[in-house]
Design goal:
The structure holds two protein chains of two kinds. Chain A is an alpha+beta fold. Chain A folds into three domains: 87 residues; 106 residues; 161 residues, Histidine kinase-like ATPase, C-terminal domain (Heat Shock Protein 90), CATH 3.30.565.10. Chain A is built from ten helices and twelve strands. In chain A, the strands form three sheets. In chain A, strands 2-1-5-4-3 form a five-stranded antiparallel sheet. A five-stranded mixed sheet of chain A has the order 7-9-10-12-11. A two-stranded antiparallel ribbon of chain A has the order 6-8. In chain B, 38% of the residues lie in helices and 22% in strands. In chain B, strand 1, helix 1 and strand 2 form a beta-alpha-beta unit. In chain B, 42% of the residues are buried. Classes of the chains: A alpha+beta, B alpha/beta. Chains A and B meet through helix 5, helix 6, helix 7 and helix 8 of A and helix 1, helix 4, strand 7 and helix 5 of B.
Chain lengths: 474, 228
């Protein structure tokens, strides 16, 4: 849909495009109705023509018989002419009737007498009694045997065509109105039917891609119910498979915490006992480093399983200032700070979200700054009320990343190209944060360097206020 | 400084205990809530508490700890890493919260900070007269010169400084430097006091006959901020 149309236009007419169900249904119904209407009109036309011709022929024959009975008693042509002219005048005086034509023809085909409107051509031989079409006339030929001649009485065929056309018009005009009304009803019924389809389609379209719960069956028409139920069964299978996978990842990562903690503690304790050659201390330090990496990787897997989990996030008011303070407290003694300051800058801010998801996202952002912001002096964790919403930022003054790398940093297993130590992170942290932000209807944005700073990296989770609230605040 | 460690995982508990003992803490390690309750009151400065224990939730121990005349600081050490778990633990009365896996030096640093806060000190270093102690490095300086001390001697000095002005009985001092599993010889405190007097000066520790011992010199410990 082009941008120049309002969104509701696209919503309303989305189903009229090529291949749309509503368009196909409406077109088929309209074409079917039009075809039926056409067949009906043509059939009615033929029937009317037959009826009109039959009735007119009967009248013509009856008129001819009456006239021939009159002129059979008038052997001379002048008295016959008087009778015929008088009958013609009387017939024309009746409403809706034109003058008929007549001729008295001798057996040889010569015209003995004719009305002014009768055709002048000689009659074809041999003359036969009965009805026939001649030069645009319907002619009945009757024998006046007493006088050895024939009487031909004729009606113009155009009169019959006009009657037929008029009758067909009167017949089709109401049908055309009915057709238009039927079309309207078809459209209305189609739209009503399509509303159900649209509602189901909208329910699918508006769905969070991460949410694999079943589609609602309420309001689904009976015919679509099997399809929706089949889709729900499929979703349930996918959801179950994913849940099993995530549950395995989550449980494995969770259960690994204590053994990893034990191994790490033992190695660290062992390192404190190393008083032998320097190589031994170096080896112990490497072992500790490996254990720390293992523990961080298991934490990331746990976080990933949690971020991707089908468990719906709770929508509650989250005190961001407290989350920031708790997170800063958590990392205050982290060895990766390497002399850097970790500072909380808070003001009273609260957002709608899931407390654990906000905490998990912020922890990942701080870890990201700890790992990739090395070389800096300070990591700031800031929550602020801004004009259009609430921002939660983690800003470091490390070396930052190339701006070209920013868009891909939220992809899994992606690190900045100028990250010195590729073994220091799993490349999952920012993708986890982006996923959590999306699920909380917030937005993650990355900046390097941060605004008005020469270097560093900033990750910002932004919760936009509803437009009404924003305008009131302005 | 006496600590109770409540951790059911044998490998982890042993490593933490041994590390903290090496850091001059007296550590009683128990693996069940019931055993932890049996150790109370115990005169602990800190309790390191796991939450997922075989006989219950570690948080259920907090009311009993808070009810003690001198409640120990509580550091929760757990695999539960959700922020809501952290808040629940802190709101239940814990003083700090650390998620597994963790660095042992971080545990030690957090315990020092908790002990410092419990003693009402703000600065990490302890300065009293000519004596200065850096708990992070376990270094004792007398007029700027490092005084070599054994772990038990250091623990005894710290126990006396944890209660400035108070007279501590021999039993209290034994509790502060020995775990329940360690048997203290009958005159071991006298031996350590004698050694410390030789190293720090005869007035460093005052004997209160019939009661026990008290930090001497100026009579009380003070931190740098207080001095300022």
């Amino acid at each position: 849909m082009s941008d120049r149309y309002p969104p509701e236009f696209g919503q309303r007419f989305r189903f009229w495009g090529a291949g749309s169900l509503m368009s196909t249904l409406a077109r088929s119904l309209m074409l079917g109705l039009a075809l039926l209407w056409l067949i009906g009109v043509v059939g009615s036309g033929f029937m009317l023509q037959h009826l009109i011709d039959g009735k007119s022929d009967d009248e013509l024959l009856e008129t001819g018989n009456i006239l021939v009975s009159f002129i059979s008693r008038s052997p001379d042509l002048s008295s016959a002419a008087t009778v015929l002219a008088s009958a013609q005048l009387r017939a024309a005086s009746a409403p809706g009737h034109d003058r008929f034509a007549y001729r008295v023809v001798e057996d040889g085909g010569n015209i003995l007498l004719r009305s002014a409107n009768a055709p002048t051509a000689n009659a074809s031989r041999p003359l036969r009694e009965g009805l026939a079409d001649l030069d645009g006339w319907r002619v009945v030929t009757l024998a006046d045997r007493a006088n050895g001649r024939y009487l031909q009485v004729a009606d113009p065929l155009s009169e019959r065509r006009e009657t037929l056309v008029s009758a067909v018009l009167w017949l089709t005009a109401p049908l055309a109105v009915l057709l238009a009304f039927a079309g309207f009803m078809v459209l209305r019924a189609s739209r009503s039917l399509m509303d159900h389809v649209q509602r189901t389609a909208a329910a699918v379209a508006e769905r969070d891609p991460q949410a694999l719960g079943g589609l609602p069956l309420s309001g689904v028409v009976t015919e679509m119910r099997p399809a929706v139920e089949a889709a729900n069964r499929l979703l349930a299978r996918v959801s179950h498979a994913l849940e099993v996978e995530r549950s395995f990842t989550y449980n494995s990562a969770h259960e690994l915490r204590t053994p990893i903690a034990a191994a790490l503690a033992q190695v660290q304790f062992m390192a404190t006992l190393c008083e032998g050659p320097p190589e031994l201390k170096v080896q112990a330090a490497r072992l500790i480093e490996s254990m720390v990496r293992l523990s961080k990787l298991s934490e990331r897997l746990l976080a990933l399983a949690r971020a991707e989990g089908t468990e719906p996030l709770v929508s509650q008011w989250v005190d961001l200032a407290r989350v920031v303070q708790l997170t800063v407290d958590e990392f205050q003694y982290d060895a990766r700070l390497q002399g850097r300051q970790l500072i909380a800058e808070t003001e009273a801010t609260r957002v709608r979200g899931d407390l654990d998801a906000v905490g998990l996202a912020l922890r990942n952002l701080v870890e990201n700054a700890l790992v990739h912001g090395a070389g800096g002096t300070c990591i700031q964790v800031v929550c602020r009320n801004e004009a259009r919403g609430v921002a939660l930022r983690v800003i470091d003054d490390g070396r930052g990343v190339s701006p070209a790398d920013l868009p891909s940093l939220t992809e899994r297993f992606t690190r900045g190209s100028n990250v010195a130590d590729t073994s220091s992170g799993a490349g999952l942290g920012l993708s986890i944060v982006a996923m959590l932000a999306r699920r909380m209807r917030a937005k993650l944005s990355l900046h390097s360097p941060p605004a008005a700073r020469p270097a560093g990296f900033e990750a910002c989770i932004f919760w936009a206020r509803p437009s009404g609230v924003a305008s009131r605040l302005r | 400084m006496r600590i109770m460690l409540v951790e059911d995982d044998p490998a982890l508990g042993l490593a933490v205990q041994e590390y903290l003992v090496r850091e001059s803490y007296a550590v009683d390690w128990v693996q069940r809530l019931g055993a932890a309750r049996a150790c109370l009151p115990g005169d602990y400065v800190c309790v390191v508490l796991d939450l997922g224990l075989p006989d219950g939730d570690g948080l259920s121990l907090l009311p009993a700890l808070r009810a003690l005349p001198e409640p120990p600081a509580v550091l929760i050490l757990t695999a539960r890493d959700r922020l809501s778990d952290r808040i629940r633990g802190l709101d239940a009365g814990a003083d700090d919260y650390l998620v597994k896996p963790f660095d042992l030096p971080e545990v030690s640093a957090r315990l020092r900070a908790l002990a410092r806060r419990r003693a009402g000190r703000k600065a990490p270093d302890i300065e009293i007269g000519r004596l200065r102690i850096d708990p992070a490095r376990r270094v004792v300086l007398l007029e700027g010169t490092i005084v070599e001390m054994s772990a038990h001697e250091y623990s005894l000095v710290m126990a006396l400084l944890e209660h400035p002005g108070n007279v501590l009985s021999r039993k209290q001092l034994e509790d502060a430097i020995y775990t329940m599993d360690e048997g203290a010889a009958s005159n071991v405190i006298e031996v350590y006091v004698s050694r410390l007097r030789r190293k720090l000066g005869k007035d460093a520790i005052r004997t209160v006959r019939g009661y026990g011992y008290q930090w001497g010199c100026a009579g009380r410990a003070s931190d740098q901020d207080d001095d300022a």
